[in-house]
Automatic annotation (TrEMBL):
This is Transcriptional regulator. Coiled coil: none annotated. The keyword 4Fe-4S does not apply. PANTHER family: HCA OPERON TRANSCRIPTIONAL ACTIVATOR HCAR (PTHR30346:SF0), TRANSCRIPTIONAL DUAL REGULATOR HCAR-RELATED (PTHR30346). Keywords: DNA-binding, Transcription, Transcription regulation.
């Protein structure tokens, strides 16, 4: 039995899926299944019952998991202690997109640093398209961006999922939220964040489905500037719940999206590849955070 087998067994036990566990540990599905079978042969017990719905832990796996998990954590602690004693704190860089911090709890990164003190966390703030470029180029280890991200081979962990609102100034349209109709936006300017891959949180598409013609403006990369344009009555935009909570909305109208399927989702993203110990520690923290929210 080796460290990888322990790690892979624990991943399969927690996910109830060889496919998900293999993705999390960055090995092929075939190699993962072979390693678990080797471990079962070595221990002389069946650990998982495989069927179309996943890999279900047996009673033997239930008994073994607490000891395997403890061994795994002890081995990680040994490596982490050695790194700290030698003054070699590994650096992990996380690119975060504009606007995502408001959707995360206060002290999110401070708590992460306390939980994994042997890792030096660097956080860089960029426009969301720049975050994806840095991630794909290997310039940063992780990114926290609005999802879903169109990056091939990316693994995502959902950190936040909020309802969204149509936002406009009362000087543009003096109507109460409960009286609003989507056709009242006919001919209006819809502000989207950024050029090229326009992001208006689905408002233009919603208007098109309802047969309402709007004009999409994607010339601004800064969301605060867009909000100032909306306040001035120059158009409409979409905003997540976290924005609605933090801004003074006396002169603005917030209408819940007519399509409840439109959401503001924040994803923690990495590109599938072999991971360092520090990267795995960060991923474990993120998965634990996501699990605690469910």
């Amino acid at each position: 039995m080796n460290f990888n087998q322990l790690e892979w067994f624990c991943a399969a036990y927690r996910t109830h899926s060889f496919a998900k566990a293999a993705e999390q540990t960055y090995v092929s599905r075939q190699a993962f299944g072979k390693a678990i079978k080797t471990l079962e042969d070595e221990l002389g017990v069946e650990l998982f019952v495989r069927d179309e719905s996943g890999a279900h832990p047996t009673e033997a796996a239930d008994d073994i998991f607490p000891f395997a998990w403890r061994c795994l954590k002890n081995m990680q602690a040994i490596r982490q202690t050695a790194a700290m004693a030698d003054g070699r704190r590994p650096v992990i860089t996380i690119a975060i997109a504009d606007g995502v911090l408001e959707s995360l709890p206060d002290g999110f990164f401070e708590t992460m640093e306390k939980d994994i003190p042997w890792v030096e966390i660097h956080v860089e703030k960029h426009f969301y398209m720049r975050c994806t470029e840095l991630l794909e180029a290997g310039r940063v280890e992780f990114a926290i961006v609005p999802g879903p991200l169109k990056t091939e081979g990316a693994e995502r962990v959902a950190l936040a999922d909020e309802p969204v609102y149509l936002v406009f100034s009362r000087s543009m349209l003096d109507v109460e939220p409960e009286s609003f109709r989507i056709d009242q936006l006919r001919g209006s300017t819809v502000f989207a964040v950024g050029k090229g891959d326009l992001s208006d949180l689905g408002l233009s598409e919603l208007a098109a489905r309802c047969g309402v013609d709007v004009c999409t403006n994607g010339q601004y990369n800064d969301y605060e500037l867009i909000l100032s344009k909306v306040r001035a009555g120059q158009g409409v935009c979409m905003a997540p719940e976290s924005v609605r909570r933090r801004i003074d909305g006396k002169d603005l109208v917030f209408v819940p999206s007519p399509d409840p399927g439109l959401r503001w989702r924040i994803d923690f993203v990495c590109i599938g590849r072999s991971c360092t110990e520090a990267e795995r520690a960060v991923m474990d923290y993120i998965r634990g955070y996501a699990d605690s929210k469910e």
